[in-house]
Input
Amino acid sequence: MLLSSDMGFRAIDRKNAKLPMMMSNIRIFATALVAAALIAAPAQAGRILGHFSDGVYSNPQKIFNVRSPFPGEPAILDGIDPDNNGAGAVSFIDEGGRLLGILYMNNQIKNDEEIKPEEMRDWFRETGFPKFFKVSLPNAEILRDEPGEIAGQPAWIAIARLPGGSPLGKIVHGFDEPIHSDSWRGIAIVAHDQRLYLLMTELRVEALATPDWKYDVDAADWNQFLPQLVDLYQRIVFLKQ
Output
């Protein structure tokens, strides 16, 4: 299985760190990266913009540090797009296709102490989801979203389906590009200081999913993924700006 990306960012070698991160054609870029064997590489391989050492990822813009949610040396994809409202992202992916990621943009609504869940909802639906996901996966859709909490803070919680957005792709005979299954993401939007953060986790883990796998978005426990995102949020150390 091969690693891919759906976040509107490229994984990129440090030598190319000054190149602009384009928010379009990500599926093409992701496939190109696979072909170039920049796939599922340990963080120490130097193919990220940030720094990873002793289990801690350091954001290249010195916004935050975060302890890896997975043991050992997970695959890491990160990227920045300063011209797109200060956007950036990092995702950790293990060999089975489990994914936990942090995406962010500048918060142009109001400070984090005043922002309301409904304003996070509007940002997610009108800005965050389109620019992070639909730009590269136009058929991506929000299946359910509601107000909630992350570590005691107001949040906006959602489930999204990303057609062809699975973190891992399969090499299939007769196809020039890896085949990616659909992805279901558990998502939480939180505000901190001057930014809005989109925390996400993969609900359909490729290595564990059966052919008839499905996620019931109408179930009473539809947001059962929240503990994973709470744990991810608590691993973040925000740095003074």
Observations:
- The radius of gyration is 17 Å.
- Residues 2-238 form one domain.
- The chain has one domain: 2-238.
- The CA atoms of residues 73 and 153 lie 30 Å apart.
